[in-house]
Amino acid sequence: MSVQSSSIPKLALQAGSTRRWRTRETVWGLILILPSLIGFIAFYAVPAIRGVVISFTDWDLLTPAKAVGLANYMHLLKDPNFWRALKVTAYYVLLNIPLQTILAMVIAVMMSRLTKSLVIRSILIIPWLMPSVVVGLLWLWLMDPNIGILNAAIRALGGPTVPFLNLPDLAMPSIALINIWQYVGYTALLIFAGLQSIPGSVYEAASIDGASELQMFWKVTVPLLRPVLVFVAVTSVIGSFQIFDTIAITTKGGPVNATKVLNWYIYEQAFTRFNMGYATAISMVLFLLLIFVSMAQMRLMRAGESDV
Amino acid sequence: MNRRFLLVISVLTLFSLLLGACGGGAVTPAATQAPAATQAPAAAAPAASAGAVELQYWLWDANQLPAYQKCIDDFSAKNPNIKVTVTQQGWGDYWSNIQTGMITGNAPDIFTNHLAQYPTFAAKGQLVDIEPLVKRDSVDMSVYIGDLAELWARDGKRFGLPKDWDTIAIVYNKDMLAKAGVTEEELNQATWNLDDGGTFAQILGKLTVDESGKNALDPAFDKTKIAQYGLIINGAGGNSGQTEWSWLAATTGWKYYDGLYATKFYYDDERFIKTFQWYADMMLAGKIMPLELVTSLGGSAAFNAGKGALHAQGSWMIGDFANNATFPFGFARLPQGPEGRKSMFNGLADSIWMGTKHPEEAWQVVKYLASPDCAKTVGSFGVVFPAQQSGVEAALAAYKAKNLGVSAFTEQALEKDGTFLFPVTDNASEIEAILSPMLQSIMLGQAKAADVLPAANAEINALFK
Lengths: 308, 465
What we know:
- The complex is a heterodimer.
- Chain A has helices at 2-15, 24-54, 71-78, 80-114, 118-129, 132-142, 149-156, 168-196, 200-208, 213-241, 245-250, 262-272, 276-300; strands at residues 57-58, 66-67.
- Chain A is mainly α.
- Chain A has one domain: MetI-like (MetI-like fold).
- The longest helix of chain A has 35 residues, at 80-114.
- The model of chain A is unreliable at 1-16 (pLDDT under 50).
- Chain B folds into 2 domains: 37-165 and 347-404, 3-Layer(aba) Sandwich (D-Maltodextrin-Binding Protein, domain 2); 168-345 and 427-462, Periplasmic binding protein-like II (D-Maltodextrin-Binding Protein, domain 2, 3-Layer(aba) Sandwich), CATH 3.40.190.
- Mean pLDDT of chain B is 87; it is low at 5-9 and 11-49.
- The interface between A and B is large, with 49 and 47 residues.
């Protein structure tokens, strides 16, 4: 928060004067963001504020809510299921993000160095274009131990049946795998777009100086790509903390709570156990957590600057 | 360059936000569907006869849809002033859609209800108490088989009229039985006990076969390469274990609790702990299909795919085997435990939503759906056993016409002390959330029943304090 409040006046000063607000560009700008602003207010801001209110109540959705003050938050501190869900979520983020980002980076660099084919770029984002529910169902069948094609292949190669989604130790890595498959192409495309914005002359200069491909990657590509990498890291970490659909389709939090992430726990509390107030309180904690994680990431990775 | 890149990024971000908004709504399709369901007929209202009352009726079983549609058609023919639209939704969406409908004021006027669900709805004032209407119209409650009607009553109130019943039996693959040299007679006479598993365990041993064709009784049997499992169950079973473990646990004399709505559960009873551990041990030995191989598509899919010789299942799935099994199959009686054969005796009923604008007309529909006429109609489709004897006779004739011998289910229902009831209770979903992970971890071999069940049971009983 402090970052924002200190940077806004600075920007205004840079712009020179407040007259800028009345230029035609600003008017058009406002008109253009209006549709998403309406969406933002109706679907994000208002529910978020209502959420704050609900989190201080005991509400079962069907009978009137009762104000309970901080009771939901106090309960949350002592709820072992909440802490386990938090751990499970963090485990998933750790499984998902590093591998996904590294893979996406490799794919993006390979694309930009080897081919700029539109066909390949389109193929890459097909999994991302599929609805998560379809992706979940697809992999549920692929990974089925009895009739799934993955296990048929493993058995044909002489391996044992692998119950990907049905063993507590395997379930979360399997879900991470599914989501990496779904999002790696999209992430690669973002990074690829960032790579396109690095002028070719920089690489020419580097190669004249005798830099190897690897050196160019570490000394030229990565530093110049930092703003994009920060964007990718922040959005994918937020997305991965909010994992829900894949789990809802495949494991439903099981086996033995192995995939009971925060969002699933929130869903369970709200819609199968009718504890809407408590569910909202957990959502609020998740919200604060994500703000904190995102800010830490921006700070650590100096989002605003590239190294040039 | 930089600006164009920012544009690309912001467009992509906006796009992903929009998609995110859709994706994040995975819970809410109900909210958009429910109004759509009620608006559609409303729009068509002018075409219908003026003054006709429009009602929504929901059910989840696609197999039963044609039967109940026929009942509704018959009803409409006699009551032209009441127009009922029947909607079927899969079990997974059904309850969340009903719930969302109740919150937004768009729930169906009448819906098929389940014993695991109705106490919550009743406690939250969402179901019409039909007891006064039953009394007013002097509905004959004695026509309903056994205690089916009583399952839906609480403290002088009544929340549904029963329309069908079900029991559990063992469905078997005839080819596998013949190959293993197990006769159908042997299977029907099987016994079971906690000491050595009785002849049932022996049969499972004979029917479990590895890839080289050796059965589980052979010392050279390789349990890492099993080609055919002796028995397939549907999972760990949750708090009722209806098709999974209730039919063995009950034969030891064990009970969930002391009767409908009792507030003290006995999942810590030694008999239950030993029975459940027997299942887990049999899974680890490969004689029952291990839990990790069952869960994703269900036990019946595995049985129909020829992965096991026996499968414990409820009578509502008879038609599913008839449609999907690619081999000859039959139904056998449950094994006899220390206290005989025991099956859960369970049934569905239609309930009326409190928010209906036409409670009187909705009651007429519910009454008809639970009447002898509708029971005969539903029975004639041969998909389920109606809650009244006349309907059961029609069902038996229909099953016979399809060449399905279903006496294993009906004999069980008629046997003296052969049945017990579904554990109807408050806090059902809380109990499920506590118990299910524990049951799973025992069946996966991660914990011993005796170590974890007493604590889980204490946690469950604490819910009622």
